[in-house]
């Protein structure tokens, strides 16, 4: 008895692109957002950070994205990714950004 070959669609876990209007992080500081997704990739700007995060969120009933190399925010989102979607506020503390 031979097993039928598997179909790619049976095991592939394709991720959908993160869509939304791009905004600068300073525009949303200290405002509540709902994080709905994220993607971490290699940064084009290696002098600041090795990794870059695309953070997808909803604010004022619109889907948006920001890009950040903030290692603090990247670590927070990776640690709590199982809780997405969640409400948060991005704050700037001295020279870094953090979720609170």
Describe this structure as you would to a colleague:
The protein has one domain. Helix content is 17%, strand content 41%. It contains three helices and six strands. The protein has helices at 8-11, 25-28, 71-79; strands spanning 21-22, 32-42, 51-59, 62-68, 86-93, 96-99. The chain has a six-stranded mixed beta sheet with strand order 1-4-3-2-5-6. The chain is globular. The mean pLDDT is 89.
Brief rundown of the structure:
17% of the residues lie in helices and 41% in strands. It has 100 residues and is α+β, with helices and mostly antiparallel strands.
State the main characteristics:
single chain; 100 residues; alpha+beta; six-stranded mixed sheet; 6 strands; 17% helix; globular
Topology of helices and strands:
Elements: H1 8-11, E1 21-22, H2 25-28, E2 32-42, E3 51-59, E4 62-68, H3 71-79, E5 86-93, E6 96-99
Parallel strand pairs: 1-4
Antiparallel strand pairs: 2-3, 2-5, 3-4, 5-6
Could you tell me how far the N terminus lies from the C terminus, measured between alpha carbons in angstroms? Answer: 57 Å
User: How many individual helices?
Assistant: 3
Overall geometry comes to globular
Uncertain parts: none
**Whole-number average pLDDT?**
89
Gyration radius over CA? 17 Å
Largest sheet: 6 strands, mixed
- Quaternary status: single chain
The fraction of residues in strands falls at 35-45%
- The count of domains is 1
Biggest sheet strand order reads 1-4-3-2-5-6
Structural class of the secondary elements?
alpha+beta
How many strands in all? 6
- Strand and helix order: HEHEEEHEE
Q: Kindly state the percentage of residues in helix.
A: 10-25%
